[in-house]
Amino acid sequence: MVAAGRIRTLRLQLRWAAAATVVITLGVSSLATAQPVIGRVFTAAEFSSRRAAVMKSIGDGAAIIQGTTERPGEQPLRQSNDFYYLTGVIEPRAILVIDGKSRKSTLFLSPTTERREKSMFGPSLTPGDSAERDTGIESVVPRADFGAVPSTIGKDGRTIFTPFRAEVLGSASPSDPVALARATRNDPWDGRESREEAFQAKMKAVAPNSEIKPLEPITDSMRAIKSPREIKVIHQATRIAGLGIMEAMRDARPGMQEYELQADAEYTFKKYGSYGAAYFALIATGKNTYYTHYHKDTAVLQDGDLIQFDYAPDYDYYTSDVTRIFPANGKFTPRQREMYTIYLRLYQAVMTSIKPYVTPADIAKDAVVKMEAIVANYKFSDEKIKTAANSFIDNYRGKTVRSLGHTVGMSVHDVPYAAATLQPGEIFTIEPEMRVEDEHIGFRLEDMLLITKTGYINMSAFVPIEITDIEKLMAQPGLSNAALKMSVAK
Fold first, then answer.
1. Residue 280 CB: number of other CB atoms within 10 A?
2. Which of 4, 115, 265, 420 is the most buried (most CB within 10 A)?
């Protein structure tokens, strides 16, 4: 039951969690900056352990990875995921070399200027003892010193590991920049290679005796299992995502436009320190719910419509992904109750079948037995709804199910699973969809699941999902009630 007191408690818990996160960060860096040059959450020791894991994988080879570039305009700098994962450094055009032979890492930094610091970023990370202490990287030197490094590595014919995949920044998943790079390369009126392809070509030119291999198989396997601190950050991102959805539920009224509910969530994202959104807002009302990734967000909420709300923040380089369904007017109609309830019970049947060390296919087989029993005992008023429910089960029935959903981490569609069976420390969502074809309506819920040694933790369980709880929350006044109103221009 989600009563007003419970909502206040959830908000207090979020504030307490945010305060705890600040405490965690105090040991990371002593720099006081307008825009952090070192991540706020992880200790230098954790980044060092990640680089050590890379060293273990590359033998006497060397891993070379570029950080992202400056932004093309008045935009805050967000580091690429893999570079941040290995360094925590948020500086443009930095280069990291992890040398398996010397067992040391070197960070190469671009020079800063007084004008840049005063007008844009505040203090920057610069070469020297302070940078080495703050980052835990053995050597931090000017970027100009990098020139001789690849050829030196190449003299011995040592393997160079470097990213092949286009860099992943905020509001993107690994497949997105890869698809963009491919489209650009194949465009007859463009044809540019990606920054990563250009870098590989330069490595081959200066180190012709070295084999150039992709770094991603190493970093992806590391990122698949989340560390305790990563789990805390993702849990925090999920709390923020959940509160954003709950604010949208409280605010929703017929006559509003979809993007007004997006504003409720984005207020919450920024209120609790998020960089921005993890992906574009998927807010669909009425027949727009049929489209899985509808994101125009311009339709007007109609009395009697259902809203599907899927939105989450990019928080300290980690994301979340939560979806809920609720009525525009705050009350489910009897028919909506019937459709939503059967979908919810089937969705929960899948969730209760999830276990560690089991394949998705075996989980699906277990869930089908439960779902078939649910449908057999459910009182349907319309054969169309029953057909939709059986079609939902067909997605799991008699098929080799290879995935229950998608992993979540630094990207909303994150790196691949660690193994064929679910492993403790993996975080993923399930988001199976049920469509009522004749009515052009879709039902899709989504929760954040952390696999443990004995089962799983539903990180987003606090977000109302039962009809009674949703309606009670929606009866409360929303943010728009207290917001200043814009006057009509004359």
1. 14
2. 265
At the top level of CATH, which class does the domain 228-482 belong to? Answer: alpha beta
CATH code of the domain made up of 36-224: 3.40.350.10
Residues in a beta bridge with 107: 96, 140
338 to 203, 370, 379: CA distances (angstroms): 61, 18, 9
The DSSP bridge partners found for residue 96 are: 65, 107
Q: Cβ atoms within 10 A of the Cβ of 9, count?
A: 12
**Domain definitions of the chain by residue range:** 36-224, 228-482
Helix 44-58 vs helix 216-224: crossing angle, to nearest 10: 130
Pair of tokens at residue 327 = 């009525």
pLDDT (tens place) for every residue of the chain, 490 residues total: 334 444 444 443 343 333 333 333 323 333 333 345 677 789 999 999 999 999 999 999 999 999 999 989 888 899 999 999 999 999 999 999 999 999 999 999 998 766 666 666 667 888 988 999 999 999 999 999 999 999 999 999 999 999 999 999 999 999 999 999 999 999 999 999 999 999 999 999 999 999 999 999 999 999 999 999 999 999 999 999 999 999 999 999 999 999 999 999 999 999 999 999 999 999 999 999 999 999 999 999 999 999 999 999 999 999 999 999 999 999 999 999 999 999 999 999 999 999 999 999 999 999 999 999 999 999 999 999 999 999 999 999 977 888 899 999 999 999 999 999 999 999 999 999 999 999 999 999 999 999 999 999 999 999 999 999 999 999 999 999 989 888 877 7
Domains 36-224 and 228-482 share a fold: no
